[in-house]
Design brief:
The protein is built from 12 helices and no strands. With 230 residues, the chain is an all-alpha fold. It is elongated, with a radius of gyration of 19 Å. The two termini are 36 Å apart. The relative contact order is 0.16.
Length: 230
């Protein structure tokens, strides 16, 4: 994953190797039940289509580095890639689709870290430790790409349909279940992820002068409360 280093999560009482994970094989379930979902594209593209898609995303990334996400247009991407504007629209649908594809293109490193990377975020650590590590890593990932993320949110409901977002919800819900959190784990997962939403984190750090360390602690407090048991 890119960005600044993620601080080691606290280890609440009872979060050792034998607790919080539900079963001994729980942390390995993510490898099989949560496949990578980095894009909204069909799982398999023809080789030429995949190559053209990569060229378009690379062109868009270069342009965005110079002009920012808010000034990125379908026309400019087509010109930079040396293709017709219709090609860009056929591949991504509209500008929001292009921005979401760019965002998901960068999501792969984060997904690799929590699906198959080293502990404490990846498999091999108790579920509670993985939950504690996930929030700070997600916040840093989204802070690095906050302009792109915010620019892609022209349709709030579309955000929830993006495969990468569904994977995050499934992953956090799985860990909550393994950590024996009480209640509707999908709803709890949405609540947890809402607390580190890119727009909220940007507001709290920019407008409310909160440090990222304070937001880390807020995530740890929420996880501890949700998984404390009766």
């Amino acid at each position: 994953m890119t960005g600044s280093a993620v601080p080691s999560p606290p280890r609440p009482p009872g979060s050792g190797s034998g607790s919080g994970s539900g079963s001994g094989s729980g942390s390995g379930d993510a490898r099989t039940t949560l496949p990578l979902a980095s894009t909204g594209e069909p799982e398999r593209l023809r080789a030429d289509a995949a190559r053209n898609r990569t060229l378009l995303l690379e062109a868009a990334s270069r342009l965005m580095a110079g002009c920012g996400a808010t000034n990125l247009t379908m026309e400019s991407v087509a010109a930079a890639a040396g293709v017709g504007k219709g090609t860009v629209f056929r591949r991504f649908g509209d500008r929001t689709g292009l921005l979401i594809a760019l965002m998901n293109h960068r999501e792969g490193l984060l997904q690799a870290a929590f699906l198959s990377g080293p502990p404490p975020m990846g498999p091999g650590a108790p579920a509670l430790d993985r939950l504690h590590a996930f929030g700070p890593a997600l916040m840093r990932h989204e802070r690095e790409h906050h302009e792109l993320i915010l620019a892609s949110r022209t349709d709030p409901l579309r955000t929830y349909a993006v495969p990468a977002n569904r994977l995050r919800i499934s992953h956090v819900a799985m860990l909550l279940r393994q950590a024996r959190a009480e209640g509707n784990v999908e709803l709890l997962a949405h609540t947890l992820l809402g607390s580190v939403d890119a727009a909220l984190v940007h507001h709290l750090t920019t407008d409310r002068s909160m440090s990222i360390e304070q937001l880390d602690q807020g995530w740890h407090d929420l996880v501890t409360r949700l998984c404390a048991g009766p």
